[in-house]
Amino acid sequence: MHGTYQSFLVFLSIAVAILASYTALALFDHFSTISDARLRRACLAGGALLIGAGVAAMHYVGMQAQQTASGLSYRPLWLAVSGIVLALLVMATLVFLQTRFIDRQKRSYGSSLDALNHQLIRLATLDSLTELPNRVTLMAGLEQAVERCRSNQQIFAVLFMDLDGFKTINDSLGHSVGDSLLKAYARQLLTLIPSHDMVARIGGDEFVIVVEQIAAADEVLTIADSILHKMQEHLMVDGAPMHVTPSMGIALYPRDGESVEELLKNADAAMYTAKEAGRNTYRMFESYMNESAQRAMEIQRGLYDAIDNHELRLHFQPKFNGVAGEVVGAEALIRWEHPEMGLVSPAHFIPVAERSGQIIAIGYWVVAEVCRNIKEWEVCGLPPVKVAINLSPQQLRHSDLARNINNAVASAGVSNSQIMFEITETVAMENAEKTSEIIRDFHAFGFEIAIDDFGTGYSSLAYLQNFRVKQLKIDRFFTNGLDISGDEGYSIVSAIIALAHSLNMDVVAEGVETHTQLTKLNELRCDQVQGFFLSKPLAANDFQIFMDRSDTRMAV
Ligand SMILES: [Mg+2]
Asked: What is the pLDDT of residue 554?
């Protein structure tokens, strides 16, 4: 039994044991981070197999060494070698499996990260409704345009636009229709603008177009014209045709501003001028527009305190019976005396109040003030006077207008039959369906309605008939035409009066300034007349004195 161990085989068996154990421990360490439980169990089993194979290999190599030493029968070395090979194979398989698993996870994490990133970029740069660039992207694009055009000495244009009457659509048809309209409008805009130019939506119904690569200002006017022209067509919104027009303001770099802020501010000011000019049009920026924007801001600020500081007043312009000549009523007209700005014309502050929404509070103040005056006149023993109050577009959009006014008039103790309301033809026809409803509400409370400034807008005769209003007020333009437009002017007024009478409406001629006009209106059987020739608007006290005089007949 005495022999010599082969030291080579002894060392080999120890090396195999160390290698197998080391590999198993390394694999365990490597796989312990695997979150997938099934894979981790498979790896542990593989590790155990590996240690087992290692131990078996060590055993056989040890046995070989011992047999060689003892001279006993020979056990083949291949058993040991195959154990090691098997262990290595298992290890390679496990490493391969895990690498594939990690790769797959990495790919899946990578694609979700890409999608998330993409979504974040879209949210940050695009308007979620129309998918047009948003304000942030616009500002960045404008900065770049300024840089480019400064170094290349080129010009570019900023078109600032908003949609006429969009608020009415939102209020009357709901926000989802409004949103669909904005989307349809955005799509239409994209078809009209060269692909290298930017169209952005910066909020609400406000869009901005940046037009580059233009040689002269005229080119941008062509684009503005084509937008206006195209928008004359209907837009298909949720399968139904809708009509919406924009008002645009245009500022040119560098003429109208060298910074992004200045260009946007000036394009915005030009847009307001376009709105005031009657909508569905555009205006190039001019420096006076900034002054008027500044003035509008002052007016808006001043108006906040106008009611509380008792700066608003009402004047009353008498309305006379066309035949008998006695005073049959008055139209209440607002005046504003600001401590610093002085007398501010309603033509200036009403549009500002209309845009800022302050007109709502002012409108209710007018009703309360008219009622207060009617009561005062009554106390002084004057015969009942019917007072006409002008309603603004914003007021008409205000829900429960007729009911609120009815409550105000009732709480003042005034009869509803002593108050009537005037709605201009343009506003009435803007949404004739809605106007019909409002007029019905007013009629239900016993208020009468007049259509004001008739002849300056586009009337649908069907709606005019449908409104069933008490009065039609002929715009001063036609009254004036009685003097300056000869037979033609006379024929037009005659036709309007005949039309109104055929629809059972009384006719009131506004702006009567000459004796000739008055005579002709009498010939044409105009029911009522008002104007400077008969009496200018009077302060409440003066109106009372005027009415008090025994002779309140007009100077025919
Ligand atoms: Mg009026």
From this structure: 43
Q: What is the predicted pLDDT for the residue at 1?
A: 43
Q: For residues 482 and 516, is the Cβ–Cβ distance under 8 A? A: yes
Cα(233)–Cα(221) distance, rounded to whole angstroms?
19
**Exposure of 249 in the CB half-sphere (CA atoms within 13 A):** 26
pTM of the complete model? 0.59
- Classified as helix, coil or strand, 264 is helix
Cα(453) to centroid of ligand 1, in Å?
Answer: 7
- Rg of the chain taking only CA atoms, in angstroms: 43
Q: How far is the CA of 424 from the centre of ligand 1 (A)?
A: 7
Which residues sit with Cβ closer than 5 angstroms to ligand 1, an ion?
390, 422, 452
The confidence score (pLDDT) of residue 201 equals 95
How far is Cα 22 from Cα 514, in angstroms, rounded to an integer? 116
pLDDT of residue 27: 67
Cα 386 to middle of ligand 1, angstroms: 14
Rounded Cα distance between 306 and 310, Å, is 6
List the alpha helices (DSSP H) in 210-342: 217-230, 260-276, 287-306
How many A from CA of 281 to the centre of ligand 1?
25
Burial class (CB in 10 A: 0-12, 13-18, 19+), 536: exposed
Q: What φ, ψ does residue 74 adopt, rounded to 5°?
A: -80, 130
Q: How many other C-beta atoms can be found within 10 angstroms of the C-beta atom of residue 402? A: 18
List CB contacts of 123: < 8 A, sequence separation 6 or more.
none
Measured in Å, residue 314 CA sits from the centre of ligand 1 at 13
Instruction: Name the E strands within 195-266.
Output: 198-203, 206-214, 235-237, 240-242, 246-253
3-state SS track over 56-101: HHHHHHHHHHHHHHHCCCCCCCHHHHHHHHHHHHHHHHHHHHHHHH
∠ CA 288-289-294, rounded to 5°: 100
User: Which residues of the chain carry a pLDDT beneath 50?
Assistant: 1-2, 553-556
Instruction: Please state, in angstroms and rounded to a whole number, the distance separating the CA atoms of residues 197 and 158.
Output: 10
3-state secondary structure of 534: coil
Burial of 49 (0-12, 13-18, 19+ CB in 10 A): middle
State pLDDT tens for residues 258-281: 999 999 999 999 998 888 777 788
Cβ neighbours of residue 238 closer than 8 Å, sequence gap 6 or more: 177, 180
